[in-house]
Amino acid sequence: REKLDESFEFLKSAYFVPETGGCIFSINSKNEPKDTKYDLYAHAFIILACAEYYKATKNGNALKHAKTTFNFIKDNFKLEQGFAEALDENLKPIPNIRRQNPHMHLLEACLEIYDASKDTDYLDCANETIELFYDYFLDKNTQTLTEFFEEDLSPHRAEGHKIEAGHHSEWIYLLTRYQNISGATNPHIEQTIDVFFTWIKTHGIDTKYGGVFNAQTANGEVIDSNKRIWAIFETIRAYSIMIDNPKHKKDAEKMLPRLIKIIKTYYIDINTGDWIEMLNEELQPVTDHMPATTPYHIYPVLKGVTTYIKP
């Protein structure tokens, strides 16, 4: 509890800008501002952190900080379609390729803070993000998830063809979570979960060496044959969810042990907790870099898997 309280206070003291209600992106080793832009992805995770902190401690300040951050997003990031990637110090959108990814994490954050607070403002935002998903992120022709966009959320001319199996897996989880938290029962969502999982098991899994490819085209052609650790963890969670799906149950039961074996054999040293961030196609390490974003895809995924299958 002491460490949680300390971390929450540090989040506010080191990053929060009282004059705007937002948070800068990064600080240096002396706790001084380093990158002072306002990043949508980062603000989504601030809300998520507040949700988890409140669930653990019932500290009402977490809900206050979450609402301040949420209002800052609504008041400053909102565009005609979706939200801006980032803002400069003057709260003006920074021109950049647009992505579905920060919107996905905003959905996640809104679901968890709504689950903690029952504040319907967050559920309204989650509903809006689901509509955005179906209007723009889901390619209606291929029924796959587009990653990169132009300013008007049309697929990016140079990068719009790239498909990531790991994000398909994350959306399977988030669409499931959305239905569980909101109480919505939508056949369209069930259909999306079905086609996403079918694509993952058909194209996303490397049937020769094992693991999950970084990037492909909609028809499965491999663009990036390297394999980040987060993608295989998110895919394990998706497979665990599909254990209860009669159509996919056998495939999920067959593949889950194989994916777990790859993690234990190639990705994580269970004695030290160290991990290999990325492997090549033949499952050999290509980096010794261990970014701090990765544990987010490890512990919560493993914790979540136990709600669908017995550990």
The gist of it:
With 311 residues, this protein is mostly helical.
Helical region count? Answer: 10
Assign a percent range to the helix content. Answer: 40-55%
User: Which structural class matches the secondary elements?
Assistant: mainly alpha
* Uncertain runs: none
Instruction: Kindly estimate the percentage of residues that lie in beta strands according to DSSP.
Output: 5-15%
> Over all CA atoms, what is the radius of gyration?
19 Å
Mind describing the biggest β-sheet? 2 strands, antiparallel
Compute the average pLDDT.
Answer: 96
According to DSSP, the number of beta strands is 12
What is the terminal separation in angstroms? Answer: 26 Å
Q: What is the helix/strand order?
A: HEEEEEHHEEHHEHHEEEHHEH
Give the overall shape, derived from the CA principal axes. Answer: globular
Strand order in the sheet with the most strands: 1-2
Description:
The chain has helices at 2-15, 40-57, 60-76, 101-117, 120-137, 165-182, 187-204, 229-241, 249-267, 295-305, and strands spanning 16-17, 22-23, 26-27, 33-35, 38-39, 86-87, 98-99, 148-149, 215-216, 222-224, 227-228, 278-279. With 311 residues, the protein is mainly α. The chain has a two-stranded antiparallel ribbon. Strands 3-4 form a two-stranded antiparallel ribbon. A two-stranded antiparallel ribbon has the order 5-6. Helix 4 (101-117) packs antiparallel against helix 5, helix 6 crosses helix 8 and helix 8 (229-241) packs parallel to helix 10 (295-305). The two termini are 26 Å apart.
